[in-house]
Design goal:
Elements (H helix, E strand, L loop, with lengths): L1 H26 L4 E17 L2 E16 L17 H27 L4 E10 L16 E5 L2 E2 L5 H8 L5 E7 L2 E9 L2 E4 L5 E4 L2 E8 L2 H27 L11 H13 L4 H23 L7 H18 L5 H32 L1
Antiparallel strand pairs: 1-2, 3-10, 4-5, 4-6, 6-7, 8-9
Length: 353
């Protein structure tokens, strides 16, 4: 049941993305030749007017095929004949729908909450070097670590984990005042009863705060902004070599993770909320990733549109759309190859347990 629910959430996010392109194209008067969910051979299709609607067999992605999107055509309702600002709206509409869907899912998850966790220091363990005058104190609430804002309670662990620094600067809220502490956090090595050595920072944190309606809306927005920041941190880890393909997940891996998270929940309601949270997180991730300036992605098409529009404004000539189509075609092939490798990895991990 959890796997089915996770697949439905994932499919919904793909559908809502393509629906954004489709609706924007229709409203802009651009002819849509096909609206398809997933890729590969069609398992269901129906022609309605000028548009073919289809569901395809490979559960990866989907597309909204518009007339004249990547080739020259004389059709006055083609994508290339539309005003540049209409094309821009069409291109970003998919990501915008994903972002809005993610925020709305977060509203479903967090608006019922009556309280939230606050990153406030409760006690110290054996790392007394960070306690006392000039250092952290019980009751301090973390506001930022190494210049990164603490939006939600879990950010403390996240930022300390992804940071390559050994000494951390923090800003805390103490008695209503913001206090900057340079070098306040230094990891300490500790050996447990099994002889395993690990690093820790020697404090416990967490307090609760009641939420009114405005506080709940703020809580939703903080999770939204935090998710956007986590996408940037993930990309940063990939570019710096801290993460690789083994840390990426495709549709199979994502559905598996969502199912595992749900299975560990103490109740069915908690399981559903966990999957919904992951769906909101995924929706915002898809929105940001699709706007990256990579060929075949919406962001790459936006860059191509801006370049061609600027070229036409300066030279009074139009760029042949077939060249942009070739670039995006090559990008799509490379992207599908990467997705294939990741899917193979996900299936292998799933089989091997």
């Amino acid at each position: 049941m959890f796997i089915l629910f996770a697949i439905l959430i994932f499919s919904f996010l793909i559908f809502i993305h393509e629906l954004g392109h489709f609706a924007a194209a229709k409203l802009s008067g651009v002819q849509v030749n096909e609206f398809s969910l997933f890729m590969g051979p069609a398992i269901w299709k129906k022609q309605v007017g000028e548009t073919l609607y289809a569901i395809r067999c490979i559960p990866v992605g989907g597309y909204c095929a518009m007339e004249g999107e990547d080739e020259e055509t004389d059709n006055p309702r083609s994508f290339q004949k539309a005003a540049w600002w209409k094309r821009l709206i069409i291109l970003v509409a998919g990501a915008a729908m994903n972002f809005v869907a993610g925020v709305l899912i977060f509203c479903i998850v967090f608006l019922p909450a009556q309280q939230k966790l606050v990153p406030q220091i409760q006690s110290f363990t054996d790392c007394t070097t960070i306690n006392g005058p000039g250092g952290l104190q019980v009751g301090d609430e973390f506001l930022s670590i190494d210049g990164e804002t603490i939006y939600v309670h879990s950010d403390v662990d996240t930022l300390l984990t992804v940071s390559a620094r050994q000494v951390h600067d923090v800003v805390v809220l103490r008695d209503g005042q913001e206090i900057t502490l340079k070098g306040a956090l230094v990891p300490h090595s500790h050996t447990d009863e099994n002889g395993e050595t690990y690093s820790h920072y020697g404090f416990t944190y967490g307090a609760t705060q009641k939420l009114d309606f405005v506080g709940k809306l703020d809580y939703v927005w903080r999770h939204t902004v935090d998710t956007v920041r986590n996408v940037r941190l993930s990309l940063q880890m990939i570019f710096t070599g801290q993460a690789g393909i083994q840390d990426m997940s495709g549709p199979v891996g994502i559905v598996s993770i969502m199912s595992d998270v749900a299975s560990q929940a103490p109740s069915v309601l908690d399981a559903v909320m966990n999957i919904l949270y992951f769906g909101g997180f995924l929706g915002i991730n898809l929105a940001i990733m699709n706007l990256l300036p990579i060929p075949a992605l919406d962001g790459g098409r936006v860059v191509g549109l801006l370049i061609s529009t600027a070229y036409t404004a300066v030279t009074k000539k139009e760029l042949d759309p077939k060249y942009e189509g070739i670039i995006h075609g090559v990008g799509m092939v490379l992207l599908l190859l990467l997705m294939g490798v990741i899917m193979f990895k996900d299936v292998f991990v799933l089989i091997m347990g």
